[in-house]
Specification:
The complex is a heterodimer of chains A (about 200) and B (about 375). Chain A has one domain: Vaccinia Virus protein VP39 (Rossmann fold). Helix content of chain A is about 35%, strand content about 25%. Chain A contains eight helices and eight strands, in the order αβαβαβαβαβααββαβ. In chain A, strand 1, helix 2 and strand 2 form a beta-alpha-beta unit. The longest helix of chain A has 11 residues. Chain B has about 375 residues and is an alpha/beta fold. In chain B, helix 2 packs across helix 3. The chains are: A alpha/beta (about 200), B alpha/beta (about 375).
Chain lengths: ~200, ~375
C-alpha cells in the first residue's frame, strides 16, 4: 500500500465508520476492513474500479462526488476520506462542505502545488510542472483547482473549519505541519494530508 | 400441457396465509424448481424471484414449454450464478399459471376455476407464500436472493418483511413503488385483455379457451417497454418483413410489427390471461414506503443484508433514478449497499440477455459474498 494510505489509515481509529470518496479499486478500504475492523463504504466514478471493489466484497456505490454525495445523511460517518481528488472537482468548495456535512471528521489529501519542484519548474523553466504526484501535461490534466498546503490551511481558517492535524509527506518521510513551520513544510512536502472537522 | 403441470415440484403451503386483502387461505399449492445441490452446511442457497411473465424454470429446459429457462444467460453450470457451486431455488408466484395457486386453479368450493373469484393479491402475499418453501427445504438463511423487474420488487419486499433471511441481496432493474407510468402500462395490458370479448369477465375457462387477441396485445405492450428506443431502432429500424416494398395493407409490413406479433402469439400459448390481470395488479399495488410509515428508510431499518443494486442506463421502465432511490434509502438507513449502473442500449431486458458487464458484476458479487458467508 502506498505511503499516503498508511498515513491515512493511521489517522483512523479502529471500529469506526468510514466513507472513502473516490475509493479507486478499494485497496485502502480493503486494508481498513481487514486491519482495523472499520465499517467502510466507497464512492467511485470509474466502472472498472467499481467492479474491482465488488469482486473484493467491498460496498461501493458508483457515482460522482460532485453530484452524488447528497444521498448520504448528515454526520452518518465518523470519517470521510478524500484522497488527491479535491483539485479535480469543478466546485471543490461545495464538495468540501458536503464532506463535512456527512462526516464527523474529514481527511483530505492534496498534491501540494507549493512543493519546491513545482515552484522551480514554473520559475526556472517557465513550464507547467510535471512530477510523480502531478503526472499529466497541462492539456490532459484532470486537475482544475490546484492549491498548496498553505492555501488549504488558509481556506480552513477562513471558513472556520477546525484543523485537527496536518501531515506533510515527502517520499518516505512524514512530518507534522503547524502554523509555525507552514512556510518551510509547504516548500518541502509533495503531499498534504489534512484532518479537519 | 396440464398433465405435465401435474408432474412439477410443488409444496402445500399449509400454514394459514393472511392476504393483504383481508382473506386468509390455507393449503395452497406452490410450484418450484431447484438447480444444483444444497451443501451440507446449507450455506450455498440462492433464491431467485421471477418477473411478471416468468416462472420457476430459471435454467436448463423448461419442461412445460420445452424452451430454454428464462435466465439461462445467468444461471447454470459455469454461469454467473454457477449451479455447480450454488443451490438455486425459484418458485412460481401465486397468481401465476405454472402450478402455483392462481386464478386458473380449481376453487374447491365451486369446483370451477377461480377466474375473477380469485382474491386480489399483493407482492407481499407472494413473498410470504414463498417463505414457506425455505422452511420446507430446511434453509434458515440464504446466501443470496436476487431478481430483476418484478423479481427485484419481490426481493425488496422479502428483505423488508424478513430482514434476517438472506445474507446478501441483488435487486436488479426494479423500483420500490410502481410509478404512474408503470401503472399506466399495466392498465393498457389489462384493458387489452378485458376488451377481448372472449375474456367474458374472466370466465373464458368455461369454454376452455383464452382471450388470445387481447392477451397478445398485452404482451406487445410489455415488449415495447422492455426495449430501449435506441436498441429497437438498431434492431429493426424501418426494415420491411420479407418484402421489397409496402403492401398497402395492414399486414405486418415492418419487421418490428412482425416481431411484436410473433411475441404476442407465442405468449398466449404459455400464459393465462387472468394471471396477467392479477400479477400486474400486485405490481401496481406495490409501494414499499407506504407500508412503512416513515417511508423507504424505515422499510430498510435494521437491515443486516448486504445489497447490490444494479440498473441499466437505457431502461425507461424502471429507471436508474428509481433504482438510485433505493440506494439512497438503504444508505440513509445505514445498510451495507453497493450500486452499479450498467451502460447498455438493451433496455429493461438487459438482465435477461447476454450482457457481459452485468454478468461479471453479478458473479463477482455472489462469489465474494460466498467467501464471507460460508461456514
Amino acid at each position: 500500500m502506498k505511503k499516503e494510505f498508511k498515513v491515512i489509515a493511521d489517522l483512523l481509529p479502529n471500529d469506526t465508520r468510514v466513507l472513502d470518496v473516490g475509493c479507486g479499486d478499494g485497496s485502502l478500504m480493503n486494508f481498513l476492513v481487514k486491519e482495523k475492523n472499520i465499517e467502510v463504504r466507497g464512492l467511485e466514478l470509474e466502472k472498472q474500479n467499481v467492479q474491482d471493489c465488488i469482486y473484493k466484497g467491498l460496498p461501493v456505490i458508483q457515482g460522482n462526488a460532485e453530484t452524488d454525495l447528497y444521498q448520504f445523511p448528515d454526520q452518518s460517518f465518523d470519517y470521510v476520506v478524500l484522497s488527491q481528488t479535491l483539485q479535480a472537482f469543478y466546485n471543490p468548495d461545495k464538495v468540501l462542505k458536503e464532506l463535512l456535512r456527512i462526516g464527523k471528521s474529514v481527511i483530505v489529501s492534496i498534491p501540494n502545488f507549493g512543493y519546491w519542484r513545482v515552484r522551480t519548474s514554473l520559475l526556472f523553466f517557465g513550464k507547467m510542472p510535471m512530477t510523480n504526484t502531478l503526472p499529466n501535461s497541462w492539456y490532459n490534466t484532470p486537475n482544475l483547482h490546484m492549491c498548496t498546503i498553505k492555501d488549504l490551511f488558509n481556506y480552513c481558517d477562513n471558513k472556520n473549519i477546525k484543523i485537527k492535524k496536518v501531515i506533510g509527506v515527502n517520499e518516505d518521510k512524514i512530518s507534522l505541519i503547524k502554523k509555525s513551520n507552514l512556510e518551510i513544510k509547504n516548500f518541502f512536502s509533495k503531499l498534504g494530508i489534512f484532518l479537519i472537522s | 400441457m396440464n398433465k405435465k403441470i401435474e408432474n412439477i415440484k410443488k409444496i402445500n403451503v399449509s400454514k394459514p396465509l393472511k392476504l393483504d386483502c383481508g382473506k386468509t387461505v390455507n393449503n395452497i399449492p406452490l410450484a418450484y424448481e431447484t438447480y444444483g445441490k444444497l451443501n451440507e452446511n446449507k450455506d450455498n442457497a440462492i433464491l431467485v424471484f421471477h418477473a411478471l411473465t416468468g416462472d420457476q424454470f430459471v435454467a436448463g429446459t423448461n419442461p412445460i414449454t420445452n424452451r430454454e429457462g428464462w435466465w439461462v444467460t445467468a444461471v447454470g453450470p459455469g454461469k454467473a450464478i454457477d449451479t455447480n457451486k450454488y443451490f438455486v431455488i425459484c418458485a412460481n408466484v401465486i397468481g401465476g399459471c405454472m402450478g402455483s395457486w392462481g386464478p386458473g386453479n380449481k376453487n374447491k368450493e365451486t369446483n370451477q376455476s377461480y377466474g375473477l373469484n380469485f382474491p386480489v393479491i399483493t407482492i407481499r402475499d407472494i413473498i410470504r407464500a414463498q417463505e414457506s418453501l425455505l422452511d420446507h427445504l430446511g434453509i434458515k438463511k440464504l446466501l443470496c436472493a436476487t431478481g430483476g423487474s418484478m423479481g427485484g420488487m419481490q426481493l425488496l419486499q422479502f428483505c423488508a418483511t424478513f430482514p434476517d433471511k438472506t445474507f446478501s441481496a441483488i435487486p436488479i432493474a426494479c423500483s420500490a413503488s410502481h410509478s404512474a407510468q408503470n401503472i399506466a402500462l399495466n392498465e393498457l395490458a389489462r384493458q387489452a385483455i378485458m376488451a377481448d370479448p372472449v375474456w367474458d369477465n374472466g370466465k373464458y375457462f368455461l369454454k376452455n379457451t383464452q382471450p388470445k387477441n387481447g392477451l397478445a396485445v398485452a404482451r406487445m405492450v410489455g415488449h415495447i417497454s422492455y426495449l430501449s428506443e435506441q436498441g429497437m431502432q438498431e434492431k429493426f429500424g424501418r426494415k420491411l418483413q420479407e418484402k421489397a416494398d409496402y403492401e398497402f395493407s395492414f399486414n405486418a409490413d415492418f419487421q418490428v410489427e412482425s416481431y411484436l406479433r410473433h411475441q404476442g402469439n407465442t405468449f398466449v400459448e404459455r400464459f393465462d390471461a387472468n394471471s396477467i390481470l392479477y400479477i400486474t395488479r400486485a405490481m401496481d399495488y406495490f409501494d414499499l414506503s407506504k407500508q412503512f410509515n416513515g417511508g423507504l428508510v424505515e422499510a430498510f431499518k435494521s437491515q443486516k443484508t448486504k445489497f447490490l443494486i444494479i440498473s441499466f442506463s437505457s431502461d425507461w421502465l424502471y429507471t436508474t433514478k428509481e433504482n438510485k432511490d433505493i440506494v439512497i434509502a438503504l444508505n440513509a438507513s445505514g445498510a451495507d449497499v453497493s450500486y452499479s449502473e450498467i451502460v447498455t442500449d438493451k433496455g429493461h431486458d438487459s438482465f435477461l440477455v447476454n450482457e457481459p458487464e452485468f454478468l461479471k458484476t453479478l458473479k463477482g458479487f455472489i462469489d465474494s459474498m460466498y467467501e464471507k458467508f460460508k461456514k
